[in-house]
Design brief:
With 220 residues, the chain is mostly helical. Helices cover 80% and strands 0% of the residues. It contains 10 helices and no strands. The chain is globular, with a radius of gyration of 18 Å. The termini are far apart.
């Protein structure tokens, strides 16, 4: 039996774990709700997730891959819900709306490009586009690296999303190998590497808020 025989099983497993990753955003929304404010939380994992899922959905349609289509539809819906929670608890709604507008315009540019590009070249060229953008989204938490090193605190990083992202990227890497798609393989090799790098920050700089909560529970 070759890898091709496991295509459906790997696709199903990867899809389920990806849904789990996307649902991990509920934990961040729960923290926002408890705090009563989205201050201190980065909206880009949610907003970038919406934009990336829309573009990946376009790429999935180009490939005609049902597994990728279904998971990205789910991703658009869940990230939109998370962004709604972020916006509701934001004290700077104008800034948030401006950011939403910029991301929407950015996504529309590439969706328009996908409609006008040569049909024989679109799979490769759009694959390059989504690969680059996916790397930027996965690596986006690292923009806070200077602050993390300075404060020795990883509270600003979305641990649930990063942890699940590590598992998911490994499974989609296997799927990429099975369907022999160089972009899916490359995306997830780099994605897995970046996720592991970010996870290592939680080991080096443990969350101070969780440490305080643990101490408080022991006192109680």
């Amino acid at each position: 039996m070759g890898l091709e025989d496991y295509r459906e099983a790997v696709a199903t497993c990867a899809s389920i774990c990806t849904m789990g990753q996307m649902l991990a955003g509920t934990l961040i929304c729960k923290d926002i709700y408890r705090k009563g404010s989205s201050k201190g939380f980065d909206p880009m994992p949610f907003l970038g997730g919406i934009g990336m899922c829309i573009l990946m959905l376009q790429y999935a349609w180009i490939l005609g891959d049902p597994a990728m289509i279904n998971i990205n539809v789910f991703g658009v819906l869940t990230n939109t819900a998370y962004m709604a929670v972020y916006y509701y608890y934001s004290h700077h709604t104008k800034d948030t709306l401006a950011l939403i507008g910029k991301v929407a315009a950015f996504v529309m540019v590439f969706l328009t490009y996908a409609q006008v590009e040569n049909s024989e070249k679109i799979e490769f060229r759009f694959g390059v586009v989504v690969t680059v953008l996916l790397f930027l989204l996965i690596a986006s938490p690292l923009v806070h690296l200077g602050e993390i090193i300075k404060t020795k605190n990883t509270d600003i990083l979305p641990f649930p999303l990063i942890f699940m992202g590590t598992i998911v990227s490994f499974q989609w890497l296997l799927y990429g190998l099975i369907i022999n798609n160089v972009f899916v393989i490359f995306q997830n090799v780099v994605g897995f590497t970046l996720s592991v790098m970010q996870l290592s920050l939680f080991v080096i700089f443990p969350s101070k808020s969780k440490a305080k909560a643990s101490i408080q529970e022991k006192k109680d």
